[in-house]
């Protein structure tokens, strides 16, 4: 797939957090890498009023705030922001699209884009349905000749539950765009370290034979953050952690860890295997929902605000900022292997990692050093920060006697001399531009994921007695999530404890 020569990227939600923190820095980096189309312009769209000049100044300031110092280059930033244009409109008002169309044509004439438009929906999810419909009303969904392709990128969460996801897929999108024009973005798939899980599994012969229920005891997936909801209280209070993180990012990590080898690394084979994992998730019974899901909400502690004190959050909110749960996958490879996943805001540190816990040896022949008996082998895949992989195994303590202890063998991305790009958006925006949907979520996968999680949302809604446990901001979440794992005789490994390698730095 080739990079197009010309394109206009229309960002709905151009005054928002995602645009300033992720999209603009990613576009600037693509520009710096000379990966943008030669004739390129951005049309930022939102209700706030800005002139082109004001918008450029604003983005200029934000690039200085969000880019790393080594990426800042004043003259490049100046020429980059000159490609930005702004149009104030209300995306929920169909009449405003009558003005968007001539605005786009005007820009089109200026940069000769051949009406090749990439729409990016970075608005509140409540607008994800109407925008494609209103674009269609004015013909802005239609391809024009060979060059004038139209594509639409939609942020997560795609839908609010199964019904709304089905409606989005089958009514709003299918009516206006073909599946190959739709890019449902989940930025976890754009992370180098997540893609590397596939290389680890499918480009090495030593892991795959043991990657199954015969050798693996359980799998633990953590993606936690040490910040609260910041300026996104309004969005978050309606959304909650299950929709914001679990239904998309965490379940993607489950899929990449659990999937069968795709026939090839292409859009169909890879996404077929992801969808199969989602379809194989063992449906949760009410008992499971009681016993195997823990939700929490951070409360004030020391100098940190509680969730209910955050801006735009209902002071009586029961929205969860933490979820831990146990999942099962009903297939030959994974039957009876628990997957424990957890995510939360206001935790002690920011870390995303997968720990594959292998089964212990059937019998320990040796004494343990310092009374610390080695546990089973663990493979730790650190997604962020300090990206790397650690294999923990047991060795003899040198000297007399026969004591053993656990040590770590590690690979750190630092050792390659360059860290993977922190920003998955660089990779994913480039993929949208060239039209490669491999790393984007397909409609059947999104639906299968919602099919699994919607009963949980319904259960919470119809059972107000199910607790939302408070946890002090800055801690590892409700103690009930520990209890959930004890049933299997295991416990969460909090990152600072398990990384013995000093390269894999821990903030605590
Ligand atoms: N922020 C992040 O880190 C991430 C965000 N996302 C997703 O991106 C999407 C946008 O998130 P984010 O940028 O944080 O949200 P913000 O609230 O910061 O921005 C929303 C944007 O939509 C515009 N908008 C247009 N119409 C409306 C409306 N009717 N109500 C409210 N806003 C409107 C707002 O501008 P104006 O008021 O000027 O119209 C603003 O530009 C969400 O779906 C989120 O899940 C995904 C991953 C990460
Ligand atoms: O999509 C989202 O992801 C971020 C966390 O992403 P990460 O790459 O920094 O791990 C989360 O903060 C946000 O709430 C959510 O919308």
Sum up the overall morphology in one term: globular
Succession of helices and strands: EHEHHEHEHEHEHEHHHEEEEEEEEHHEHH
Largest sheet strand order: 12-15-14-13-11-7-10-9-8-16
Task: State the end-to-end CA separation.
Answer: 44 Å
Bound molecules: NADPH dihydro-nicotinamide-adenine-dinucleotide phosphate, the ligand O=C1O[C@H](COP(=O)(O)O)[C@@H](O)[C@H](O)[C@H]1O
Q: Report the sheet with the most strands, covering strand number, pairing sense and barrel closure.
A: 10 strands, mixed
Structural class estimated from helices and strands: alpha/beta
The number of helical elements comes to 14
What is the third-level CATH name, the topology of the largest domain? Dihydrodipicolinate Reductase, domain 2
> Strand share of the residues?
15-25%
Low-confidence stretches: 498-508
Describe it.
Substrate binds at residues 187, 191, 225, 244, 345, 350. One of its GO terms (biological process) is pentose-phosphate shunt, oxidative branch. InterPro entries: G6P_DH, G6P_DH_AS, G6P_DH_C, G6P_DH_NAD-bd, NAD(P)-bd_dom_sf. GO terms for molecular function: glucose-6-phosphate dehydrogenase activity; NADP binding. There is one protein chain. The protein has 14 helices and 16 strands. Helix content is 35%, strand content 20%. With 508 residues, it is α/β, with parallel strands linked by helices. The protein has two domains: 6-185, NAD(P)-binding Rossmann-like Domain (Rossmann fold, 3-Layer(aba) Sandwich), CATH 3.40.50; 189-419 and 445-498, 2-Layer Sandwich (Dihydrodipicolinate Reductase, domain 2). A hairpin with a 3-residue loop joins strand 13 (378-384) and strand 14. The protein has helices at 17-32, 52-66, 74-81, 96-111, 130-137, 162-176, 192-202, 233-258, 267-280, 286-291, 424-434, 443-462, 480-486, 495-498, and strands spanning 6-12, 39-46, 84-88, 117-121, 150-154, 182-184, 216-224, 293-299, 322-327, 339-344, 351-358, 367-368, 378-384, 388-396, 403-412, 469-472. It has a ten-stranded mixed beta sheet, sandwiched between helices. The chain is globular and about 80 Å long. The site of the ligand O=C1O[C@H](COP(=O)(O)O)[C@@H](O)[C@H](O)[C@H]1O has 5 residues, from helix 8.
